[in-house]
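Deliverable D4.2, example record:
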Amino acid sequence: MLTQASPDGSHTITYRGGGELGMGGPEWGWISIDGRDEIIGATPDDVVWSNDGQFLAFVRLDVQDVPNRQAVEGMNYKVGIVRLADYAVRYCLGNHGLAELKVQNLSAELLYATVDGEPRVLQLGRIDWP
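Output generated by the structure prediction step:
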């Protein structure tokens, strides 16, 4: 179990490993923010705080219900963004199959990520928060 505090020290995430998707496949687990409900499918190396500690971004592995759960046709990644003021979570920049998705940096305004090596920038102000 890994624990990491936000840059301002006001929030904490806990990562609990779940395993690998198949032998030698991507690792996944659960993250909990400030002891709240766990989010399943988080990858351990892709958790990024905004500098002000108000947002958190992570990569989530999502496996659809495929008959043998061995093939990649039912696997995809999404970036989850958490607004820590109310713990609202929104998912974006999804891909399908084995396309690589990495969170690079996060500010109070912008998320920087790469999808299969191509840079992507997402404006947090354009997200439809509840």
